[in-house]
Specification:
The complex is a heterodimer of chains A (325) and B (188). Chain A is built from seven helices and eleven strands. Chain A is α+β, with helices and mostly antiparallel strands. In chain A, helix 1 packs antiparallel against helix 2. The two termini of chain A are 41 Å apart. With 188 residues, chain B is mostly helical. Chain B contains seven helices and no strands. The termini of chain B are far apart. At the A-B interface, helix 5 of A face helix 1 and helix 5 of B.
């Protein structure tokens, strides 16, 4: 395994060298500009700024292309086998090209009934399989709204378009071992922080109050645990269902999962399925530039799989004593 | 407008606010009371299911466990002599009696491995586990609602409204003594 990883690491390092060289050239371009402005360099050296900027840009572009190629080869070659080996019946379908819906489909994601419908829907890096007899399906999802606002500048009014990312993380679906009537949602009080900008967005505060996006007639339920009620808002179509599904042990397990991902976990129990969304703000199975690809790096992927094991284990989804065989 | 009129208007506004608050508090207390009653009826449903499942189990095992079947008959007679609407304490007692019959059956059946392995028996055991889960959920739901109602009834100024409409604290549905014994710890 180490030699295979080294092969990818060598290719990754090459791409990173291009990226680094590109960034240095761009930085030098700005240094040259400042030196010209402050007359340290003669004015006829002005050609340095655009030249270095253009060359730097091209080198960054080459580095990005090379990096994406390594990323693709790593996901399709190594990671697919690695993840499939870790999970029974495991199937990893990595992102390919720029198609928007390669993971869970919109109807599968919106079946959780707590995520508002997006103007732009992205899903990729699907991972599905069986853990301890429990079927699961998951993928990264990115949901974006497009908002328009009117801006006045220089006496002119114009319409400004803004892309707002309101969810970016991993969505899971599990078979649930209890038969119950109605639906139940256990949500953090607020939706995740929203990000402005399509690519290099900035967080600009928490999202609106998290609540069911459904016409099923959910009511707020208060359970007997004060700590649980402070951590989560619970909504159910039948109050009894909330108490039936959320046993004291189950509530503790949900709080434990929440502590691992504070403010970012949402659960919904609908039609005997458990939907879980974790807003981690990153692509789960992607390579990070300038980080050595070795066995310790694989640990981060393993931790992301461990979440699935934790859910099955902690929530005892593998115990089917309540379901008729 | 003179000072007297101004004072009158202020008093009228304060009075209206107090009346609105009184009605809103009264309604919220009554809504909570209804929730407690709904939760209590959930316990009734779960107890009835528990009783039916236990009857089926006794019927299934009575050839093997004569003494336990007789004990169950006593529980049936006890229930027949009680009013249709049981108080919370009587419901606790009813559940306790059913649990003790169940425990006796469980112990007795240990001596009959063939019976234990029978599909009908294992299905009944599964049903009992499921009914027990529903019963626990109903009990927790009832107690959570009672806790909310009681804490509002004892808090000032809601306590004034509660006293005015004769709303009293409701009893909790306690865990059966055998279950409570499980969590008792000996620090000696």
């Amino acid at each position: 395994m180490a030699s295979t990883l080294q092969k990818y690491q060598d290719r990754k390092s090459r791409a990173e060298k291009f990226l680094l060289a590109g960034f240095i050239l761009v930085a030098l371009a700005f240094v040259a500009l400042i030196l010209i402005i402050f007359n340290v360099l003669p004015e006829d050296s002005m050609w340095l700024f655009p030249s270095l900027l253009v060359i730097g840009g091209i080198v960054i572009l080459i580095g990005t292309v090379l990096f994406n190629r390594v990323q693709k080869a790593f996901k399709h070659g190594f990671l697919r086998d690695y993840l499939s080996d870790k999970i029974e019946d495991g199937e990893f379908i990595p992102k390919k090209g720029f198609k928007r819906k390669q993971g869970l489909q919109p109807d599968e994601v919106y079946a959780c009934e707590f995520l508002p419908k997006a103007d732009r829907f992205y899903s990729f890096d699907r991972l599905r399989g069986t853990i301890d007899g429990v079927r699961f399906d998951s993928s990264d999802i990115k949901l974006q709204h497009i908002e328009y606002r009117t801006v006045r500048r220089g006496g002119k009014t114009r319409r400004k378009r803004e892309v707002i990312t309101y969810f970016y993380g991993r969505m899971f679906e599990f078979d649930f071992n209890k038969n119950f009537e109605g639906s139940l949602q256990v949500l953090e009080p607020k939706m995740p922080p929203r990000t402005k900008g399509a690519m290099f967005g900035k967080n600009f505060g928490w999202g609106p109050k998290a609540k069911p996006q459904s016409s099923r007639g959910f009511d707020s339920v208060e359970l007997e645990s004060v700590e649980f009620n402070e951590t989560f808002n619970t909504f159910a179509t039948k109050e009894h269902t909330a108490f039936y599904v959320l046993t004291p042990h189950f509530m503790e397990s949900l709080m434990k999962l929440e502590k691992q991902h504070p403010g970012k976990v949402y659960f919904s129990f609908i039609d005997n399925r458990l939907h879980m969304a974790i807003h981690n703000g990153r692509p789960t199975f992607s390579l990070k530039p300038f980080r050595k690809l070795d066995e310790s790096y694989l640990e981060t992927f393993k931790q992301d799989i461990d979440i699935i094991y934790d859910v099955v284990d902690e929530l005892k989804l593998n115990r089917n004593i309540f379901k008729e065989e | 407008m003179n000072a007297f009129q101004i004072i009158l208007i202020i008093l009228a506004v304060v009075l209206v606010i107090v009346i609105i608050w009184f009605i809103a508090t009264m309604n919220s207390l009554r809504r909570l009371k209804v929730k407690v009653q709904e939760a209590e009826s959930g316990i009734d449903v779960a107890l009835t299911k528990r009783f039916d499942t236990l009857s089926k189990m006794v019927e299934t095992v009575k050839g093997y466990t004569k003494h336990e079947a007789e004990t169950f008959e006593k529980v049936v007679k006890w229930r027949q002599n009680m009013p249709d609407e049981l108080t919370v304490e009587q419901k606790e007692e009813f559940l306790e009696k059913m649990n003790s019959v169940q425990s006796e059956i469980d112990v007795a059946v240990e001596n009959y491995p063939d019976l234990k392995a029978e599909k009908v028996y294992t299905n009944l055991q599964q049903s009992i586990a499921d009914v027990e889960e529903h019963l626990q959920a109903s009990r927790r739901m009832y107690n959570a609602n009672v806790s909310r109602l009681n804490s509002r009834i004892v808090s000032f100024p809601t306590s004034l409204v509660a006293a005015k409409i004769n709303m009293e604290r409701q009893p909790f549905f306690e865990a059966e003594p055998s279950k409570r014994a499980d969590v008792e710890m000996d620090f000696s």
